[in-house]
Structure formats: C-alpha cells, structure tokens
Amino acid sequence: MADATVKNATVHNNKGDLFTSFDVADFDVPHGKDEVWQFVPLRRLRGLHNGEFAEAVLPNVEITLPETAKGIEAEVLELDDDRLRRTGGAVDRVGAQAFTSAQKARYVHFDKDSRNTEPVTVHVQGQGEGVTSFGHLVIDVEQGAEAVVDLRYTGSGTHADNVEFIVGDNAKLTVIVDASWDDDAVHLSGQAAVLGRDAVLRHNVAVFGGEVVRIVPRVRFTAPGGDAEMLGVYFADDGQFFEQRLLVDHAVPNCRSNVLYKGALQADKNSDKPEARTAWVGDVLIRADAQGTDTYEANRNLVLTEGARADAVPNLEIETGEIAGAGHAATVGRFDDEQEFYLRSRGIPAEEARRLIVRGFFSEVIGRIPVADIREELERRVADELDTLKAKTH
C-alpha cells in the first residue's frame, strides 16, 4: 500500500510516471477540476468515483471458446493469484475501486506457440438497475502464440472493471472491445497491456451504447520490437458521454505504435437529455532510452448536429531525438458540405450522400477489424445511428 500522505498527488516527471495503486484508499475522491476528470460528468457516475455506489454484486461474465480452440484455458481465479495484477495498479480512483471490490477474476490463457484465429468471446452483461458490479479480466498470451478476443459489454446497469493484456515475446493479440450497452448503462474500464519482445497488439474499441462510458487503455513496451495499433470508433447521441483516455509508453528502443480513433456526435435540440458529448485524450510518451521509436496518433470527430460537443487532446512527449518518426493530429469538424455537394452533383440524393460520407468516415477504422461478423455488426450500427439522425432532422 502506498503512503497515505502521498496518495495520488505524487509529483511525476512525465505522463508515464503516474501514481498507481491497487487500493482505493490511496486515491482522493476526484473533482471536476482534476485534470484527468475534467471532462467527466461525475454526478452521473452513480457513486463509482466516491464510494457511494449501489449494492455490489458479482458480474455476469460468460466466456465462450471457439470450436477450433487449441491451447486455450479459461479459469476463475482468487484475487491473490500471482497471475493477476502484472500490468500494474490503477491510475485513477475508479480503477482502484474495481481492484478493491472485485470478488473474483476471470483468466484466459493461450499456450505457447498456439494459433487461434477465431475469437474467444468474453461477454459481460450488466446486472440491471439498482446494483453495481466490479470485474477483473486477464488475457495472457504466451510466447509465440496468436489470439483473438471479442470482449463484449451489453445490457444495463453500473459496472467498473480492470482488464489486463499480457502479450509474450513474438506473440500476437487482437482484441475487440465492444461497448454495446443499453442507453442507461454506466461503465468505466481500465485496460492495461504489457508487450514483450517483438510482440504485436491490435486493440480495437467500439462504443455505441451506454449513458456514460469511459475507457482508459494503456500500453507499455518492455522489450524492443513491439508493435501496438490502437483503433477506435464511437457514436454519441443525446444524453450520452463517451471518453477515451489513452497512454502509449515507449520505454525501450525500436518499437512502433499507431493510434487512430474516429467519432461522430448527434443531438436533438428539442431533447430533455444532456447534450451529446465525447472526449478523447491521447498521450504518447517516448522515453530517453526509446531510440528508434516510430509513432503516430490521430483523432477525428464529426459533429453532425447542433447540441453536440467533442473535445480532442493529443499529447506527444519526447525525451530523445533519436527516433524514426513521431506525430499527432486531432480534428473536430462539422459535416463536409463540399463532399455532399460533389455527390449530389452526380445525382445522389442529399440524405443518401450524407450516409455515404459518414459510413466512409468510419470505414477506415472498421475495415481493419479482422473478424468479418464484427465488421458487419459495426457497419450496421453506424447505419442505425444515421437512421436516428434522419429522424431528428425531419
């Protein structure tokens, strides 16, 4: 346990040296003026941030292995098991609350040199109104293994969890985090990945449902040759707040990272719900010993109606000049009238032109997901959101 007099106010040298802990008592209750909570509607977190949450119950988690599974084991672990907590402690109070309050952990292990291209499905279903659930999940991919995980959240309720990804030397993990909650759900998730030598991580996030959803992914390279790609799509409507807050920590030489998130927002000006709101904060740290790093991060936001707001904050911190490349970009913009005019000039009706532009906006990210069924499902959700937009603008 950390020194209670220090807690999370510890001064740190860079974005990667944040205070971490497994104990909620080590964190002060956050306030809106705190940098890491400045965008979050704290009053809508149902007490996850201050300990005033409703009765805690076990999460409803179902793990399904594909018929072709080879070298995969799924277990339920006690919280003192050494296979847990290898990616480090939480960086905020809600993550520490989940560490403190989770009663069991789910563990999925992929054997050394095993090859699995069909996804293992981890389905977390909300426990409904009036209760709170806390979860812990570990995905452990041994040296030389290849794995795909579909981490799916559905239903309603209040849920907080920590997810650990351990990717061994020369291993490859593709994970799809699909937050398709009902619109009354609140979910906060800390997701930490540790990559070995020449390890490959493909971390994909899709957020289309939920009242408040905040996902905090972190990637740490422990040996040269690591390759991390972090992709995300999100679409917010009236009353929804989505935040993605990332950290990619380049601490060793010759690693690569690429971050691309795309979001759209729409709102009904006559709605009695809060405005549609998203926040994206992307931190990339290149430490002094991380020579040869190649990294780029970008966030693009499309605001489709009045009454919607997107915040985008890319941060690039470089402590060595001996790198292959580094860059970042972020945009928040309205619908592109020139693109619509171009399509309409070729005989495409206005509504269909708008649909084509928005679907094309997301296709750059969705098209990289390697599981066809998931790609098709996300494309369908974009289409459903556009049907909602049509209704709001008529």
Automatic annotation (TrEMBL):
Pfam entry (one): SUFBD_core
A biological process from GO: iron-sulfur cluster assembly
Superkingdom, natural source: Bacteria
Positions of the SUF system FeS cluster assembly SufBD core domain: 127-361
Entry coiled-coil feature ranges: none
Family, as annotated: Belongs to the iron-sulfur cluster assembly SufBD family.
Protein name stated in the entry: FeS cluster assembly protein SufD
Gene symbol of the encoding locus: sufD
